[in-house]
Amino acid sequence: MNPEHYCVVIVGAGPTGLILANLLGLYGIKTALIERAPSTVNEPRAVSIDDESLRTIQATGLIEQVLPDTVQGYGVHYYDWTGELFARIEPTSTEYGFPKRNAFRQQVLVRQLHEGLQRFPHVTTLFEHALTGFAQNAQAVQLDVSHNNSDKTISCDWLVACDGGRSLVREQLGIQLTGSTYAEKWLIVDLLDRSTAFRHTRTYCDPARPAIRLPGPHGVVRYEFMLHEGEDPELVLNEPQLRSWIAQREPSDAQLPITRKVVYTFHARVAERWREGRVFLAGDAAHLTPPFAGQGMNSGVRDAANLAWKLAAVVRGQFSADLLASYETERKPHARALIRMAERIGRFMQPKSKFAAMLTQGALKLASLYPPARDYVLHLKFKPKPRFFEGFFVPAPASAALPAGQLLPQPWVERPGGTRVRLDEVLGHGFAMLHWADAPVSPAMCAVSGLNCRQVHVLRQHDDFLPTLVRDPAALVIRDCEGVLGAVLDPAGADGVLLRPDRYVLAYLPRGANLTPAALQALLEQFTARTS
After folding, report:
1. What is the pTM of this model?
2. C-alpha span between 134 and 145 (Å, rounded)
3. Which of 14, 106, 155, 422 is 20 to 30 Å from 438 by CA-CA measure?
4. What is the 3-state secondary structure (H, E, C) of 512-529?
5. pLDDT tens readout for residues 303-362
6. Dihedral over Cα of 95, 290, 39, 35: its sign
7. Local structure of residue 110 (DSSP, 8 states)
8. Could you tell me which residues come within 8 angstroms of residue 240 by beta carbon, excluding any fewer than 6 positions away?
9. Which residue intervals of 27-99 are DSSP H helices?
């Protein structure tokens, strides 16, 4: 008997694997999700979710289920060794449609993502199925799977390993992680029913005991304490000991119910390569990020958003498999940049002495007197932009304020009748073309090289909806009511923009162009030549 065959098999039902499965479900791809545990994780591992990840959850169609269990728009307050507040990060912009920093509970999110898979009869979830090995050839991947003390084989066109930092798939491929491991261990304690309503994270940059207090949704709160060299992890898990540390930071938290306590070692590592033939690495299997910037899980979500539409396009025959090479090319540099950011924040949070704390914290206090420097920190502008430097996009003109290969902002836009929605709500799930309603852009652009774009006519901020601007009554028309799209198109001298399914800019449409720009046509033909 031939083994059950899937277009894509995902190993690991964490946030990365579940979001990838939901996106593939939306694209209509026959997918299996394999997880050795009996259900999704019931531990509150990650606690911070950013605006880019919420936008990706919006793309899965599950944002309305997720937001009620999310604390949107929290910041971080930094305290020196005396307990004095010396810096704040409280970003207020919603560039991608959501606040930049948000608190959540991972066990709630993964349950919601798993429930979302029930929408798709072509997506199969296999709990208590452990991958024991695999082999691949030019046509497929054969997987050996153990379930209920019996073995079986399944096959797939493409395998994606989302199986964590100790990835069995990565180990079998012989792919090494490069980077470093922090010498310091951290004690993490999760508690329930806090009575202190303060919503922002407190970070204590105290060499005596660096610590973090992170409030979350539904009254939860997390504490993280750095251990010093020589401290026994088993002894610090002693409840009276850890409660005394909590009491030093917030006495009202000291007697709260504890739901989890664990000692972690943090890593800053990246896999040497993220693909071997028909097998891909994603999430912690591909990169391990220190937690100081709250970007570990969020980097995995970016992997899923990048890889999902490409796998779907290749499975459907829309593009050649060469497109998949852009996954690592695009994602790896950004993952490295976020790891470097986390390491810098970690050095700042973990001063080795009071003298070192005085130098770093004093420098930040001084810089805060200069408004541009203060805003750079306050509004999280130091976070690396979601941008590709090479990959599947056409470079933009030098005048462009937003380079091609960068994530397009998601403003609120107005529909005829006055309803306002986030931009992605009108873009659909595939490629999209936004262009000024009065621009001479040919409708044939939407079908160029099989892209099958959704065409959206855009009115400028200062214009009204008039029938003379868009004569087709079935056309999608929106108004750039916040002026954000104008700020993208006008500096680039463009009448429109082509967007990838992950909402990164594929190409600008030069002003007055009725035909596809030659560079775009060449890019598309590079990947479609062998798919006829």
Report:
1. 0.94
2. 9
3. 422
4. CCCCCCHHHHHHHHHHHC
5. 999 999 999 999 999 999 999 999 999 999 999 999 988 888 777 777 767 776 677 666
6. positive
7. H
8. none
9. 51-60, 63-66
